[in-house]
Design goal:
Helix content is 16%, strand content 41%. By secondary structure, it is α+β, with helices and mostly antiparallel strands. The chain folds into 2 domains: 2-107 and 252-263, Diaminopimelate Epimerase, Chain A, domain 1 (Roll); 134-246, Roll (Diaminopimelate Epimerase, Chain A, domain 1), CATH 3.10.310. The chain has a 17-stranded mixed sheet that branches. A two-stranded antiparallel sheet has the order 9-10. The longest helix is centred in the C-terminal third of the chain and has 13 residues, at 209-221. The radius of gyration is 17 Å and the shape is globular. The mean pLDDT is 96.
Length: 264
């Protein structure tokens, strides 16, 4: 069976997108792993399956390259908004997000962040604004759920953090029963944020939209920056706007790279 797909990217965070709104498509972990392989498959950071929705304009399901299905992806949401065109509402496992496409960019309302220890979730009650834990130089992270779970560490220089080694240790720590995305960030002199992300189930990527949202929320909550704040990632810059009690709005570029057909 052959199916058409789109290869899309947002700030270098790349996706294989299958549109199953009219013709259903089953997906499992083994198929995802095969398609995500950059040597023997198409290659991607996440696989996206679009399906009909009774609650929104469409449903977006998301798999990491390890074959695990996850709740949310901000960069993918911008790509889907660009694909749909105009304004749309997208159902995800992490909640409904609203997107508006504008040329080669899109803005997505990611909903309100959640801060409860059981919202993240953590294995037991702790102060999520400054979790009293450490992994070598990474200590006292801010924990938040922005559709998926994140911890944010503020450091002097994100590039000096051995995230390839520490990221998996934090991600799979028993403190996080559903694992966690790991962000290391610094506050720049101009009030912007610089960020690197170890994504749960994907590893280091060029950009992470939910990571940028989580980091901006953490920095604004700690009064380190003001909204809206530019967040510089290896793949480019996102602008995040959030005020306490409100929804997170994320703006940035997205693009369709190519389309093709593959036998499943």
């Amino acid at each position: 069976m052959k199916r058409r797909f789109l290869k899309m990217q947002g700030l270098g965070n790349d996706f294989v997108v299958f549109d199953a709104r009219r013709e259903p498509l089953g997906m499992d972990g083994a198929t995802v792993r095969a398609l995500a392989d950059r040597r023997t498959g198409i290659g991607c950071d996440q696989l996206i399956l679009l399906e009909p929705s009774d609650a929104a304009d469409l449903r977006m399901r998301i798999w990491n390259p390890d074959g695990g299905e996850v709740e949310a992806c901000g960069n993918a949401a911008r790509c889907v908004a660009l694909l749909v065109g105009g304004a749309c509402r997208i159902e995800t496992a992490g909640g409904i997000v609203a997107g508006v496409a504008d040329g080669g960019a899109a803005t997505v309302d990611m909903g309100a962040p959640r801060f409860g220890w059981d919202d993240i979730p953590l294995a037991y009650p702790l102060d999520t604004a400054s979790v009293p834990v450490a992994w070598e130089p990474l200590e006292q992270p801010f924990a938040v759920n922005v559709g998926n779970p994140h911890v944010v560490f503020f450091v002097d220089d994100p590039d000096e953090v051995p995230l390839e080694r520490l990221g998996p240790l934090v991600e799979r720590d028993p403190l996080f029963p559903q694992r966690v995305n790991v962000n290391v960030a610094s506050v720049e002199e101009d009030g912007a944020l610089r960020l690197r992300v170890w994504e749960r189930g994907a590893g280091l990527t060029q950009a992470c939209g939910t990571g940028a949202c989580a980091t901006a929320v953490a920095a604004i909550s700690r009064k380190l920056v003001r909204s809206p704040v530019p967040v510089h990632l290896p793949g480019g810059t996102l602008t995040i706007a959030w005020e306490p009690g409100g929804s997170i709005r994320m703006s940035g570029s997205a693009a369709c790279v190519f389309e093709g057909e593959i036998a499943l």
